[in-house]
Structure formats: C-alpha cells, structure tokens
C-alpha cells in the first residue's frame, strides 16, 4: 500500500502542475495508523511540500503569492522550506511582501526565515520591508535584533531603499535602531556608485526625509563616484525645497563639482533659470567665476539661455568677470548676441563687457549678430563702438557674413559706418559680393555693385561672380551680372566660361539668357553643345543649336552625336539628326555614331540612325563594323537589326 502511494505521488508530480493545493492533498492522502513507516512517511511528506515547477516555484512560494495563509500554515507545519527561492532568486518572503500579506510575513519571520537571511539577490527581510514601506514589519524585525546595515550585492541598504521610495516612517524607525556600536545605523553608508541615503532623497525630492537624515547628522558633502553631492543633485533635478534645506546647513560645500564635466551647483541653477536658488548660493559664497570643463561660467550659461533675471543677479556681484570666455573664446556677450537677447546685451555692455572681444577663430559679437540677422543688436553694438572693419582668422568681415546670408538691412547699416571692407577678400580670395552671388541674393548683389563692389575680384581658380552664380543655378543673379558687368566671356583657370558651366549643370533659364550674347568662339560653342548632349539636357541642346555651329567637333573628333550615342540619350540623337548633323561623322578612332550605339546595345538608337542612312559598312581603325561590335558585345537584337539592313542592300 505504501509503495503504491509513493508511485502515485511520483506520477502525479510528473503529470500535473505543482500547486499548493496539489501538495497539500498529497499530504492529506497519506495513510494513518500504527503500521505506517514513520521514516518513509516523513520523506514522502518532505518531497510533497518541496515539489517545484519548472521555474523553481514551490507550493509555499505560490501560497505566499496568493496570500493563502491557511495553506502556508499547513505547509510550514509539514516542513516546507521557507528559504527556498525560484530560479530567478525570488523567495516566498518576497512574494508575501509583494502580495501585501503581512500576516504571512509575520508567520514566516516567526522562526521559519532567519531575520538576517539574504535571498539569492542579496535582499534581507528588513530590506524588503523597507522597500514596501511596511513599518510594522520593520518594528518587528527591530525587536528581533536584525542587522540594520546588511545590504544587497550593490551595497544598497534598507535605509537607502526606504529613502529612495519616500517611506518617511520607515526611515525614522531605522534611524532609531539599536544604538550599540555593532548594529547602529550607518547613515552615511555608500553604495557601489557612492550614493548615500541623503543623496537619493535629494534626487527624488523627498523633503521630509532629507530633513530627518540631516537631523540625524547625515554628512552633507559626501561625493559619489563621479563627484556629485546631495546639493549638486538637488540643483540638477531642480528640487528647490531640498536645495534650500541643504543650504541651511553651515557646513555645506557649494563649489564642489562633478568630475567629468566639472559642472557645479551654481551653474545648474543658472542654466535652469532658478533665481531664488541662485541668490541663496551666492549668499553662501558660491564662486561666481567658477567654470566647467568647457570654461563656461554661470554668467555665460545664463546668457546662452537668455535668463534675464539671473544675469541681473549675477551682474550685481562686484567680483564677476563679465568677459570670462569658454574654451572657444566666446564671451557672455557673444552668447547673448548669438541668441538675440537685446536686453542682456545692453546689461552686459553697461557692466563693461568688451564689445570687440574675439573668439579663438577671431569672431566678434558683431560677427555673430550679423551672421544670425540680429538687426537691433547690430545697432546696439555699433552704438557702443563695435568695430565694423574687423576680421576673423579667415579674414571674414561682418559685412561678408551679412552678404553671405542676404541680410540687406544689416548690410546697409554697416556700410553707413564704413565702406572699407566692401572689397576686402577672405583667405580664399572671395569678397562680400562673391559670397552673395554664391548664395543667390540678387538684392544684395545689386546694392553692393551700386556702392563700389569690384566684380572682377576672383578666387585663385579665377571663377568670376557670374561663373559661380551659373554654377550654383542662381538665375536672377546670373541675369543681373550678365547685364551689368563684362563677365560673360571671362574664363576660369580651367578655360571654361559661365555659359559652359550652366550647360553642363542643366540650368536652362540661365542658358537662355547667356546664349544671346555674341562673340562665343568655336571651342565654347562645341563644348557647350557637347556638355548638354553628354548629360542628356535636350531642352538646352535645342536652344544651343539655334545659335551655335552644330557641325563642330572637339580635338578628338567627337561630335554631339557621338556623345549622345555613347550615353544613350535617344531623344537628343533624334533632335540632332533632324537638325542635319552628319550621321556618318567619325572621331579620331574612325568610330561612327552607329558603331558606338551598336557597341553599347542601344537597339532603338541603332534603328533611328539607320533611318537617317547611317552607313553599316564603315570600319574603325581596328577594322570593326557596327555589326562586329554588336556581336562581340553579345547584343543579338542589335545584330538582327544590322543584318536585316545589310541584306536589304
């Protein structure tokens, strides 16, 4: 009978899910009476209560999760292992806490679980109670002489987790723990990352906990592994009340900084525009000229973000350095000009900021104001003796930048003050006029030319203003320059003219305007037509053949028809043939257009050429005909077309 029951137990354990009820039923089905083998029966009971699912969950674990105190009690009575964890390291006690079953928690702690036992993840009963804020359990554990500083693997203590979760009552209980030296609360205990309970309370903004910890003599200036203090993190997270509490401590260190970027508390409050905290920090002797790793001061960051009230507070401090720059050389005034903050610019200038201070690249506040179209700020700077004819390391003037961006009002304002830089060229030999032409600002181009800008100044590659306008497709500028200057026939270093570059880049409207000008030589004519045909611009080719010699060729004997065939532009081939181009012209290798089309397998193009009487029997310098070229390149359809043509003849 006993053997039979034992086999049934094993069978049931394999065939059905392990649940608390199943385990309990197995226990209840055990035979009673004097004939029972006590040793074997106890063994079977132990196996029943410790059955586990695939995830390692025991009947006791499941009962704790479900909050079923009766089954928990029965399982414990029959010897269930209360410290047995799942494969994920979760214990029955964890689940009792999770399900808010405090009666079960108390039952487990009443002799079934060691009060200082750590789970696979290093959590003690006290840690779990503190995490969930169960002050009653905390008190129970306190009476059991639990070790209050026992921590997880990352050194997270019960006090830390209670402070992080905002459980003020639990924090108070922990602070009042056993006062004996061996088990007194370590209020400044640091995790692996160096964070303390005070740090995390400040980060989360739990004001009451911060106050309680400080009243219990928590050290206010402890830095974590990256140099952050409680004050730093409270200002970073903008926890104003916590910051105020910390600043009420006479020993608080206000100038400590984070290691990586050397950011500090005053910088943070200025960055976020918190005037109250900024004032309090300054009252506690915060270093107003302290810099971060980029050499940005609190004044600089305030100007960068446009915080007028903060800047006003900072400028009241007599020791402030208004011209202290970041690593790039940008001053607070430069930052204010860049952001367009007119009132800040006035405030800084009244406080004596250097209006002409340069960055490391030589840019001044006037440069950045012109580049970013800050017209009113340009007025302010000029009224405060900003230099107009000032140049960057690349010899760029404020006028150059305004011309490049197309800000005509600023240009006029600058030119009223000085005309010196109108023809001043940069390191690459470009002028304000040239920059305006590149960007297509025709109103600026017109104004500069009327006021003495020299259109003949070119960069080292000799590309004229008109040339770059054509190259970039700036049709309005190109039209204006063609009419107002003598640049139409001016060549670049590469012997190309504006019309050619417009043809090559496909700008039809510019071509239509420039082609009307006379005196284009044969080389220009053929190069323009070749460029349009090579790139497939049929509309441009159609315009050009009305004005230029269609029968011309370059020094290799290549005609527009050759290039069109080479690149597969059938629509241009048809256009050229309709306008009388020689279908049998040849280049220096004696290749005809038909040979080129056949070699590339362009069947439709071959048919078109044949319609216009292309000679199928012509040979190149190597003795190839169109047919042999098509055969050698494996284009059978082209071969068929050519053979049919030959047989007809």
Automatic annotation (TrEMBL):
User: Which Pfam families would you find in this protein's record?
Assistant: Ank, Ank_2, Ank_4
Q: Where is the composition biased (Polar residues)?
A: 11-24
Disordered: region residues: 1-24
Which PANTHER family does the entry mention? ANKYRIN REPEAT AND PROTEIN KINASE DOMAIN-CONTAINING PROTEIN, ANKYRIN REPEAT-CONTAINING PROTEIN-RELATED
What this protein is called in its record is Uncharacterized protein
Q: Which SMART domains match?
A: ANK
Q: Which UniProt keywords apply?
A: ANK repeat, Repeat
What PROSITE patterns does the record tag this protein with?
ANK_REP_REGION (PS50297), ANK_REPEAT (PS50088)
* Listed GO CC annotations: cytoplasm
Name its species. Answer: Mytilus galloprovincialis
- Give me the stretches of Basic and acidic residues compositional bias: 1-10
Placement of ANK repeats on the sequence: 55-87, 88-120, 121-153, 154-176, 193-225, 328-360, 361-393, 428-460, 556-588, 589-621
Taxonomically, the superkingdom here is: Eukaryota
């Amino acid at each position: 009978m006993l053997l039979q029951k034992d086999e049934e137990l094993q069978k049931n354990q394999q065939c059905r899910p392990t649940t608390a009820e199943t385990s309990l039923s197995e226990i209840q089905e055990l035979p009673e009476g004097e004939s029972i083998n006590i040793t074997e029966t106890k063994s079977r009971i132990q196996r029943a209560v410790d059955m586990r699912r695939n995830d390692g969950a025991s009947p006791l674990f499941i009962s704790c999760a479900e909050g079923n105190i009766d089954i928990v009690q029965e399982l414990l009575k029959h010897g269930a292992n209360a410290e047995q964890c799942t494969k994920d390291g979760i214990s029955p006690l964890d689940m009792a806490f999770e399900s808010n079953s405090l009666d079960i928690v108390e039952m487990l702690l009443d002799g079934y679980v060691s009060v200082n036992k750590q789970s696979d993840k290093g959590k003690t009963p006290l840690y779990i109670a503190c995490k969930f804020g169960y002050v009653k359990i905390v008190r129970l554990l306190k009476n059991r002489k639990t070790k209050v500083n026992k921590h997880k693997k990352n050194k997270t203590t019960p006090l830390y987790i209670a402070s992080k979760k905002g459980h003020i009552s639990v924090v108070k209980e922990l602070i009042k723990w056993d006062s004996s030296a061996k088990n007194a609360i370590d209020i400044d205990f640091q995790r692996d990352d160096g964070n303390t309970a005070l740090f995390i309370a400040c980060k989360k903004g739990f004001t009451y906990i911060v106050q309680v910890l400080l009243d219990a003599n928590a050290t206010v200036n402890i830095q974590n592994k990256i140099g952050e203090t409680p004050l730093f993190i409270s200002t970073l997270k903008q926890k104003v009340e916590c910051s105020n509490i910390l600043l009420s401590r006479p020993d608080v260190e206000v100038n400590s900084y984070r290691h990586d970027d050397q950011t500090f508390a005053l910088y943070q409050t200025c960055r976020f525009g918190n005037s109250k905290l900024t004032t309090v920090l300054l009252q506690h002797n915060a270093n107003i000229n302290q810099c971060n790793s980029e050499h940005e001061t609190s004044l600089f960051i305030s100007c960068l973000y446009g915080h007028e009230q903060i800047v006003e507070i900072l400028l009241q401090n007599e020791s402030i350095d208004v011209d202290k720059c970041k690593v790039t050389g940008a001053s607070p005034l430069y930052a204010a000009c860049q952001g367009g903050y007119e009132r800040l610019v006035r405030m800084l200038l009244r406080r004596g900021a250097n209006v002409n201070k340069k960055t490391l690249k030589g840019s001044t506040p006037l440069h950045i104001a012109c580049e970013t179209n800050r017209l009113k700020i340009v007025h302010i700077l000029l009224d405060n003796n900003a230099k107009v004819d000032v140049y960057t390391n690349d010899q760029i003037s404020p006028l150059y930048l305004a011309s490049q961006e197309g800000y005509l009002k600023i240009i006029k304002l600058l030119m009223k003050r000085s005309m010196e830089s109108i023809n001043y060229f940069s390191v690459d030999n470009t002028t304000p006029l040239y920059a305006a032409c590149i960007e297509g600002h025709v109103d600026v181009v017109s104004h500069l030319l009327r006021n003495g800008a020299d259109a003949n100044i070119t960069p080292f590659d000799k590309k004229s203003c008109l040339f770059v306008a054509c190259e970039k497709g700036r049709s309005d500028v190109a039209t204006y320059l063609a009419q107002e200057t003598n640049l139409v026939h001016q060549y670049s270093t590469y012997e190309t003219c504006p019309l050619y570059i417009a043809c090559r880049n496909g700008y039809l409207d510019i071509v239509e305007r420039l082609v009307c000008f006379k005196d284009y030589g044969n080389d220009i004519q053929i190069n323009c037509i070749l460029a349009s045909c090579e790139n497939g611009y049929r509309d441009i080719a159609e315009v050009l053949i009305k004005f230029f010699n269609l029968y011309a060729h370059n020094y290799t004997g290549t005609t527009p028809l050759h290039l069109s065939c080479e690149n597969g532009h059938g629509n241009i081939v048809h256009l050229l043939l309709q306008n009388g181009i020689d279908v049998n012209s040849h280049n220096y290798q004696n290749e005809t257009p038909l040979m080129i089309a056949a070699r590339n397998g362009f069947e439709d193009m071959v048919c078109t050429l044949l319609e216009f009487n292309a000679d199928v029997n012509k040979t190149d310098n190597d003795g190839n005909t169109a047919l042999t070229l098509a055969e050698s390149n494996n284009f059978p359809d082209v071969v068929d077309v050519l053979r049919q043509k030959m047989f007809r003849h």
